[in-house]
Amino acid sequence: MSGPRKTLDELIANALERQERSRADVADLRTRARILDRKKDAHRKVVAGATLLARVKANPHLRRAVHDDFNRAVIDPKRRAVIPDLLDEQAFQEAMRAAADKAAIEAKEEAEMQPTPPMRPLKAPGETPSGAAPS
Fold first, then answer.
1. Is position 86 within any domain?
2. Tens digit of pLDDT for each residue in 58-94?
3. What is the structure's pLDDT at 89?
């Protein structure tokens, strides 16, 4: 047989405990959903921003429109300091030169790190090159 029956007060207490656990579970799930929504939004902004930056580099008309729009929309000096190349054509050109210089330096460093293939010895004057038909 099972143990003694629970009183109504005990049953009510158990039901309230289950209800409280359910509320906590719902609150946890809502928090997880908000965190996931923020991550999705941040990723969306990164993708959109990267796409815009790539297009601005390639399209001078779009770059001019972005410069004009950002100059009107971005007022806070702290935020303007983060995107000077999107606010001014001269700053954009300087940023592009700096990026090109950095890429050239990195390419040179990469090339210097690559092992060079061994050189073949030079043939003496008058010696037949390899693979050539004898005359």
1. yes
2. 999 999 999 999 999 999 999 999 999 899 889 888 9
3. 87
Angle at 113 between CA 107 and CA 118, to 5 degrees: 115
pLDDT at 120: 72
Q: How many CB atoms lie within 10 A of CB 85?
A: 21
Task: Look up residue 89 and give its amino acid.
Answer: E
User: Tokens 């990026």 belong to which residue?
Assistant: 99
For residue 120, tell me if it sits in a domain. Answer: no
Give the chain's domain count: 2
Reported pTM: 0.56
Domain that holds residue 68: 60-113
**Same domain? 75 vs 40:** no
Given the structure tokens 């930056």, which residue do they identify? 53
Element spanning 59, H or E:
none
Nearest to 70 by CA among 79, 78, 57, 61: 79
